[in-house]
Amino acid sequence: MTASRATGALFAIFVALLFALPAQAQKKLSGVALVIGQSAYEHIAPLPNPANDAREMMKLLTDLGFDARSVTDRDAGRLRRDLERFAEDAEEADVAFLYYSGHGIEAGGENWLLPVDVDHGSLDSAEETMVPLSGLIEKLKRSVPVTIVLLDACRTNPFPAGSLVRATPGAEPAPMGESGLTAVRGATSLTEARPSNDNLGTVIGFAAEPGLPALDGAPGANSPYATALLRHLAAMGGAEFGQVMRMVTEEVYLSTRTQQRPWVNESLRRQLYFGVAPDESQGDEALVTGERRQLLLTIAELPDINRLQVEKVALRDGVPLDALYGILRALDETAEPPSDPSEMEKMLEAQAGRLRKMLSERAALRTDDPEIARLSEAADRAIAEGAIRTARLFMDRAVARVEETRQDVDDLEELLRRKRIADAAIYARRADASALVFAFTEAADDYGRAFDLVEKWDEDLAWNYKNMQAEALRSHGRATGERAALDAALAAYDTILRMLPSDDRGSEWAITRNNMAVVLNDIGERGEDAADLLKAMTMFEESMAVFERLGDDANWSAAQNNIGNIHLALGQREADPARIEQAIEAFRAALARRERASVPMEWASTQINIGLASFTLGERRGDAALIAEAEAAYRAALEVFTREASPMDWGMAQNNLGNTLNALGLRSNDISYHDRAAEAFEAALEVRTREAWPQMWATTQVNLGNTYVHRARHDLDTENLEKARAAYEAALTVLDRRASPLNWASAQNNLGNALQTIGQRTADVEVLQQAVDAFNNARRVYKRKEFPIDWAMTHHNVGNTLRLMATVSNEPAHYRGAVTAFRQALSEYRREAMPMQWANTMAMIGGALQGMSYTDETLDSLTQAVEATRAALEVLTVDNAPVEWATAQNTLGTCLLNLSTRSGDGATLADALAAFEASKKVFDRDSQPLQWAFAENNIGDVHWNLAALGGGNAEYAKAIERFENAKQAFGENGQLGAVMLSEQKISLIRQAMEE
Hints:
Blueprint: E1 13-16, E2 27-29, E3 31-37, H1 50-63, E4 67-72, H2 76-90, E5 95-101, E6 104-107, E7 110-113, H3 126-129, E8 131-132, H4 134-143, E9 146-152, E10 164-165, E11 174-175, E12 201-206, H5 224-233, H6 241-255, E13 263-266, E14 271-274, H7 284-301, H8 304-317, H9 321-334, H10 341-360, H11 370-384, H12 388-405, H13 413-436, H14 440-454, H15 459-480, H16 483-499, H17 507-526, H18 531-550, H19 553-573, H20 578-592, H21 600-621, H22 624-638, H23 647-668, H24 671-687, H25 694-712, H26 719-732, H27 741-762, H28 765-779, H29 788-809, H30 813-826, H31 835-853, H32 860-873, H33 882-903, H34 909-919, H35 929-972, H36 976-994
Parallel strand pairs: 3-4, 3-5, 5-9, 9-12
Antiparallel strand pairs: 1-2, 1-14, 6-7, 7-8, 10-11, 12-13
Helix pairs in contact: 1-5, 2-4, 5-6, 6-7, 7-12, 8-9, 8-10, 9-10, 10-13, 11-12, 12-13, 13-14, 14-15, 15-16, 15-17, 16-17, 17-18, 18-19, 19-20, 19-21, 20-21, 21-22, 21-23, 22-23, 23-24, 23-25, 24-25, 25-26, 25-27, 26-27, 27-28, 27-29, 28-29, 29-30, 29-31, 30-31, 31-32, 31-33, 32-33, 33-34, ...
């Protein structure tokens, strides 16, 4: 510890002011320390390690320049006198440092140190038999500029559960905390008192978080807390004390594998340093320690959600937590970490697999070069400490050593074989280290060199190195989108296949073909046609047949799940739903061999895939039963994915469930579904935060915006629509056309929908034009060749907006533009493949043609409108699309009424009356009062026409009754213009009845 520190004078304590003082003005302070170790308890559970802790801390504090005193195993009287003496000594000092290791309890807002002679009876007179801590700390605060108290006394309560503590025999009893000393609230709080003006602050450190126990460590050693303090206080190197304590916190967290995390309350008003920076130590350990200290500070800044992901992968994959955090830090220094949580987890799992393989193969490294052996061992130590870049540096040096000695053994073939294999292992080790820091190109190069070295010496090693090269190339291609890397990966896999016997159709062949299919899938997802996806599917099917023959259910179900994903990807591009049906079949087949009891996470993931495919197919077909199946699948997945254990999977399931609830709400015209959808999206946003996962946050914002749009169908104002608009615009501050083109296009399209309805309700042509612009923006991504269904959707939406613009602006040309746009949509919306979309568009054409008819001197537009609307009603029903069905019934009635009015023929009036009456099954007075009023008004017009065509006063009376109904509903909803029109109609009819 002291070999590199020269003289004791270097370790004088000083406080560096935060402002106004130059470096040479930093004041050196004197410090006293008391170290207490309580091990040999006489009547309660003894603790083996506090005496060891005290001995080592005494030495450390003395080295750091404190006037330190250590005491152990003190009874109540001696412990009290020790603390009183310490307080007196501290009056002449600038810094007081108290370290306590032993039992302690918290009760009634006071922390008590337990002497070694304490017993259960001591709890009835605590002030006499135990030592309170708050009074000492308050005294130190008043008399010493800087007070530091470190308490390794959070061990499990040594007294029976439910024990009570009385300060004096007659005092009120207080319950005892479960886990030793902790931060308390109230008058005797250790942490809340305000220091005097002369006090530079206080540091109170506990070995564990409030309410949680600390570990004592292996017998004869030090506690985890003491071990961390010794390691980092001893090597402060002039570092600021608060920063060092953060290192201590994360050191304990890592060394206990997340079981314990110290807690510090710091109220220093100056930066505190122990000593000046000593001479930097040299050698391998200095490099490892330096990187580890930076890693600890990085961990201290990580959000809890990132910690949870690393802990989850480390536990599941059985790799060191330190090393996995080191890998994450290396990624942050090398490239932007994935924003998508599922991609982040995949990355961590891939790197954990590489790490596990690297650690398992350490024993296989054999070398006769002591320097290489030393460097390899140093690399292993560095990885264990999370110093990944330092491990890479050591392997760089080992490779340099290899390069120096490669030619030394060329004379003897056996020695050459051994040398080549050993050298290849070094390249492979460096490749492993490169892959851990995401340098996949360098890793692939080194695996290739390793393959070249062993190709003619060891077939199994050559096969393995070529596989690793292919995997590194694929990882690079997937991360960067470079086609050349993916093609190189395919070539590597092809080399592997050629190494196998020509008649080999076993596990290695199937795994290699499966891996080739994964690369082809990556290529196909980026390409414009489906050829690579189809080829990948064939290869998955071939591999799956081998897995079936070998009884390998895990790989078989994974391949089956991959086949389902390809079917779904193809189905989303195609109008024919057959692919989506095949995806559901594949997912269900995979689920049959992924039992919940044995592989719950894989089971739940497949449930989500089933839900997505069922939802997509249900939307295409207008099948509420399929959408209900999707809801059930998501809810099943949520029985496994909990927010606490799997927050991002849980958030994804909540997000998908919200989309499904919205679809069910549209089909049932029930706003409660949309309310539940909003709850699901809000739940998803609790974990999909903008700060941690911006892309996921933006996607859920879009979905929440959709919910507001659906809610707006049940009101007449723009409040929900403006909320939707805000949600879409917020999402577009994150989504970028180049980085996330499909999500960007979706947000643009949905923004257009919200603007369309806002423009309709406010009669604002400018807002309607903004909607058209948004739809056209979406179509910049939704090209017809690559995305025919989405392309058709944007044409449908533009057509609907133009129809509304014609109504608001009274410009018939917009109706013609709407009809053209709708017919463009129908070129992809085919009735047999997408009946609901086809029917909705046909109904919209009917509405646009009806608008055109007002300037059409012939009856052609009206006749075509009737034909289009009746065709739509062959598909739309009150059950599968109630609002759309009712709207189409109203359009049909209006067209038939206008045909009668213009032709003077009453033959169409009965059908018109039936259509208007049918629309009221959905547009009832309670839920849709304004639409109901228009239906009543239209029915009144039908009776008026019937009266004019010979029906007489009876029909006039019916017309007046319906107009009166409409007038009352219009008035209740603030439609004064419609009220006046109804009154005019009633007046004209009464005049006709009197004539």
